[in-house]
Known about the structure:
The structure holds two protein chains of two kinds. By secondary structure, chain A is α/β, with parallel strands linked by helices.
Amino acid sequence: xxxxxxxxxxxxxxxxxxxxxxxxxxxxxxxxxxxxxxxxxxxxxxxxxxxxxxxxxxxxxxxxxxxxxxxxxxxxxxxxxxxxxxxxxxxxxxxxxxxxxxxxxxxxxxxxxxxxxxxxxxxxxxxxxxxxxxxxxxxxxxxxxxxxxxxxxxxxxxxxxxxxxxxxxxxxxxxxxxxxxxxxxxxxxxxxxxxxxxxxxxxxxxxxxxxxxxxxxxxxxxxxxxxxxxxxxxxxxxxxxxxxxxxxxxxxxxxxxxxxxxxxxxxxxxxxxxxxxxxxxxxxxxxxxxxxxxxxxxxxxxxxxxxxxxxxxxxxxxxxxxxxxxxxxxxxxxxxxxxxxxxxxxxxxxxxxxxxxxxxxxxxxxxxxxxxxxxxx
Amino acid sequence: xxxxxxxxxxxxxxxxxxxxxxxxxxxxxxxxxxxxxxxxxxxxxxxxxxxxxxxxxxxxxxxxxxxxxxxxxxxxxxxxxxxxxxxxxxxxxxxxxxxxxxxxxxxxxxxxxxxxxxxxxxxxxxxxxxxxxxxxxxxxxxxxxxxxxxxxxxxxxxxxxxxxxxxxxxxxxxxxxxxxxxxxxxxxxxxxxxxxxxxxxxxxxxxxxxxxxxxxxxxxxxxxxxxxxxxxxxxxxxxxxxxxxxxxx
Lengths: 377, 249
């Protein structure tokens, strides 16, 4: 597929103007590789339900994003590696901003807050974050993206949790309809570490979150959750992979969506339990409410279990509102709209309340309520 | 208060109410009894505004207005209350927030100022005591994990909070043990006043020992076939509904 993005890359390379941000051999290697790869389309299995044509045809210039970050995020030269997927290779080739946040002790009283913004049309951003929580340390991180205009962010967050480390991390996504957003989150967890990741998708025109969690140390726990409330013609896609590599780990996953208008939602959740990962407990659930006949949800849970002594469950439900509940609330004097908002809040609060950061919970609920998406608690 | 004239209603093309007439005056308590399938719950549903029922003929006037033209929430704000036969569990919605919103809508509709948080809590305390509802229940999600008795007490508690002018109790006695029945009836009786009317729908006479009606109607095949004083309920209990079926036939 000929695309403006690929053409742009070719043009840069031919004119010798590329100027890699970090003089890495990997960046050059990635560019060479990128030229051989084709832009993903819905013919690719992992992009089956997520249209990319519009993104491919958008005119973009590589630029730096505006950031406001806690001082604990230090700019750094990233250690880039070559990935197999198109956007991963693209990220390596053109990564132009990187930060590192290290949590060394009990920092549960401090939030490492990072706000990334953009309000310039036609920009293409390739940020990279590395978050390391050292042995037995406790960290709280918020990455808040506020994208206001036609642009594309191809971001990557690498998280390393050492032995006994604990991390609460919240992603708050609040974007204009014209913004394309791809966020790849890759977590590696050592023995006894604890992850609590919550993705709060307030709004966005096109968002794809790819979360991959590798549990490589025993007794590690991964909690991952997210909600999405797409409306108009927005598309929200959550692809997750939880990889249980060793015994005695637990994971608990909950994604919930309420879809309005002609919006689309995609959920693809893979759970791998490797042959040695006995005594694994892995739970996954994706639930959706369709608020309109023209909205579409594609939900695909996948379990691959190679160990025999495990407790795993997964479930996916997509349906309409509980009409009895709606009538009950109206019969007590609530307007139809008010009743629906109340039910939507109740539905997604289960996800928001999983956050380990009370200020985030308060902020997200308040923002949704001010926008009339839900009724305040 | 409320006047129902020649009401006909059907669901999925099947006619359930076949020309029902009923007039309820302020302060009156009417009992509607009848065998299963006679249309008791349909009547409650149609009055509260359930959309799955289609009214094909007749009228319902409520305080001088056409009730059937109103959305369910407007009926509620105008003072109609339905105590559900099967109160719905709504996970995630706290009883308190729900009631705060409902009371707020009622007051707005009546042109009253919103209650302050303190006034609201005082009201909750006063009204929950009426049905001996534990304060803890008020803080839980609406009906979630409530026992059958707690659900029905919660209905009466909500009724007390919303102060309707006409309350319809749809089989409020079903699934209640004798203690819960007594508490529910006590809550209802405490609310009786010259301005407030009740329509008590029940299959059994038992509830009417506690909530003593002014009038008893027998509903059969979608029509009121017999009306009498409270003693009619005892007679029905004694003779059973077959007696009515034979009388009507």
